[in-house]
């Protein structure tokens, strides 16, 4: 084969690959079915209020920071790569914003990571409240697909969480904002990283290990909020191959330390965060408790130092989930 023929053959192959990866351009009006509501977008929203750090970081990843006029519900610092953009956006509230505060930003779209923020019993408002004012709403499918948010303190899974709902969130946002190419590339990057981490875990005999994830506690002496088996955090350790010792289908059920001690997990995974709503939000308080409580201190994971600390957002249905998986796998590999 001549160089000229090889050049053109390679060029054609590359062009074909680029064409296959090229996402479609959004055709408006666009109808989106989202968490029980059907909405029609006549154009990409130009003004968005984002309630929930996970969703805000996805918007920034899709280069939509200039559309965000306000944010709320923060657990930890913004990812470094988005700090410059985030500094330009008003933080309406660290926690739950008021309905009037959101509407004051005159958004075309109110976007939330949790249905308990904007939903049937939304603490910010109901979806009809926003729709009556001409404001569209979008809830991350990660919090409503296969989940009943009217049962349990943080909702109960009617179906086990699947990572596909995160990819669905990214894909649909790409459609709504006509960022489909960026959305497709982001999903592929996340899939590749997770597959690599899971492959590494397969060589560590993790299927013979168990784990429990402690998010926080309303008071240190009260039962802790632990990751249920069917939620996003439960799916994270299931993807790695670990067995979750908590069998509840609630997202974050409270579980007594006596029950956890009886299950005696191989690993304890703790959430660290900048939020200080509860005393146990502070990971140092968690560690002090584990080393002093007469029940928790007897866990083999505590006595053997098999404790892994990751960011709270790395155990949620977020862009950071894959980083959490990588950290857990790396910690197990280091202990082998």
From TrEMBL:
Keyword set, alphabetical order: Signal
Signal peptide feature range: 1-23
Residues of the Fe/B12 periplasmic-binding domain: 47-336
Gene3D superfamilies the record matches: Nitrogenase molybdenum iron protein domain (3.40.50.1980)
Name of this chain's protein: ABC transporter substrate-binding protein
């Amino acid at each position: 084969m001549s160089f000229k023929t090889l050049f053109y053959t390679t060029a054609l192959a590359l062009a074909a690959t680029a064409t296959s990866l090229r996402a479609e351009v959004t055709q408006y009006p666009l109808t989106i079915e989202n968490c029980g509501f059907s909405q029609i977008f006549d154009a990409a929203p130009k003004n968005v209020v984002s309630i929930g750090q996970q969703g805000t970081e996805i918007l920034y990843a899709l280069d939509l920071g200039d559309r965000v006029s306000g944010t709320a519900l923060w657990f930890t610092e913004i990812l470094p790569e988005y700090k410059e953009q985030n500094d330009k956006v008003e933080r309406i509230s660290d926690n739950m914003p008021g309905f009037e505060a959101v509407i004051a930003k005159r958004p075309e779209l109110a976007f939330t990571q949790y249905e308990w923020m904007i939903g049937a019993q939304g603490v910010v408002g109901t979806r009809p409240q926003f729709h009556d004012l001409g404001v569209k709403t979008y809830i991350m499918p990660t919090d409503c697909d296969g989940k009943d948010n009217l049962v349990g303190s943080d909702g109960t899974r009617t179906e086990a969480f699947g990572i596909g709902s995160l990819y669905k969130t990214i894909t649909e946002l790409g459609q709504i904002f006509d960022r489909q190419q960026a959305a497709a590339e982001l999903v592929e990057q996340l899939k590749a990283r997770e597959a690599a981490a899971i492959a590494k875990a397969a060589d560590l005999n993790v299927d013979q290990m168990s784990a429990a994830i402690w998010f926080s506690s309303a008071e240190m002496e009260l039962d802790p909020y632990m990751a249920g088996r069917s939620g996003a955090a439960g799916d994270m350790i299931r993807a790695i191959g670990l067995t979750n010792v908590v069998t509840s289908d609630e997202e974050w059920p409270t579980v007594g330390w006596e029950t956890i001690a009886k299950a005696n997990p191989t690993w304890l995974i703790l959430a660290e965060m900048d939020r200080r709503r509860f005393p146990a939000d502070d990971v140092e308080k968690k560690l002090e408790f584990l080393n002093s409580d007469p029940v928790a201190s007897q866990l083999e994971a505590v006595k053997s130092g098999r404790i892994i600390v990751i960011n709270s957002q790395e155990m949620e249905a977020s862009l950071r989930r894959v980083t959490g998986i990588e950290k857990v796998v790396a910690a197990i590999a280091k202990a082998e």
